[in-house]
Design brief:
Layout: H1 8-23, H2 28-43, H3 50-65, E1 69-73, H4 75-80, H5 82-92, E2 96-98, H6 105-117, E3 129-130, E4 140-141, E5 151-155, H7 159-167, E6 171-175, H8 182-186, E7 189-191, H9 195-209, H10 216-221, H11 225-238
The protein binds adenosine-5'-triphosphate.
Length: 242
């Protein structure tokens, strides 16, 4: 791909997902979900916007205040940014857990092996249990991971499962390019940004905020998810960034 190609980054991400399909960690449905995200990213100028930066700062504060944070991983995020997810989990000293909506247990095992190859052991590939009272929503989780977590970071999640996590009293931080999705509206903090940019930005923010722990609760209290989502929506509707 010649360097100045205007769609270079988006083509790179498509290629990563294509590779994910070849390796058996991503599904065709994942490609469709990515397509929806890509369209929103286009409208957001393929940049981390000011409201996304605010949500990232707030998410960093909450993750640093959490007693048992867990980062959920699916086929798309595994294919798009595995090293960045590992760096985030190392920075926070919290587990990654493979959590899938579609597909057999063998895909969970493949994703787990994919991370293992990169030096990271992750949860969710062995025995999973339904979140209490929510089995109809297919929210199966690792008994040592999301089941016990107080805060769950869900990059690319489905609305039903986000609701299931909320009903199970988890504090949910979502990364979703669509500010109108059920996930974005249900989560406590929604980062409207591409996971490829948001995950490393979150790691940098956590590193920075570790040194100034006192301001964390204040940052968290000052945040309104609905207001933040409105700001992202305005950028898309009015093209404010262009
Ligand atoms: P919901 O059930 O929450 O209303 P949905 O039905 O649109 O949303 P899915 O199709 O399961 O949900 O998930 C796709 C979501 O992931 C979309 O909202 C899309 O914008 C988002 N998405 C896809 N790729 C990315 C990405 N690389 N970074 C961030 N978000 C993404």
């Amino acid at each position: 791909m010649p360097k100045p190609h205007p769609r270079q980054e988006s083509l790179r991400q498509r290629h990563l997902l294509q590779e994910g399909i070849r390796k058996g960690i991503t599904t065709p449905t994942g490609l469709i979900a990515f397509g929806r995200g890509e369209a929103f990213d286009y409208l957001l100028g393929e940049k981390t916007t000011p409201p996304a930066k605010k949500a990232i700062e707030t998410a960093a504060a909450r993750l640093l205040l959490a007693s048992r944070p867990v980062i959920s991983v699916n086929g798309n995020t595994a294919a798009l940014c595995p090293r960045e997810l590992i760096a985030l989990s190392n920075e926070l000293n919290c587990p990654l857990e493979v959590n899938l909506f579609y597909g057999p247990a063998s895909r969970r095992k493949k994703i787990s092996a994919f991370f293992q190859k990169r030096g990271k052991k992750i949860l969710g590939a062995q025995k999973t249990v339904p979140l209490p009272g929510l089995s109809s929503l297919r929210a199966n989780v690792d008994p040592n991971g999301i089941l016990k977590a107080d805060t769950v970071l869900v990059p690319l999640e489905d609305g039903d499962r986000t609701q299931a996590l909320k009903k199970a009293r988890k504090f949910v931080i979502a990364i979703d390019l669509n500010p109108l999705s059920r996930t974005a509206r249900t989560a406590d903090i929604s980062i409207v940004d591409n996971v490829v940019r948001a995950i490393p930005a979150l790691t940098r923010q956590i590193r920075k905020m570790k040194k100034q722990r006192t301001a964390l609760q204040k940052t968290l209290n000052a945040f309104s998810n609905s207001r933040n989502l409105k700001e992202s929506e305005q950028i898309i509707r009015k093209g404010k960034l262009s």
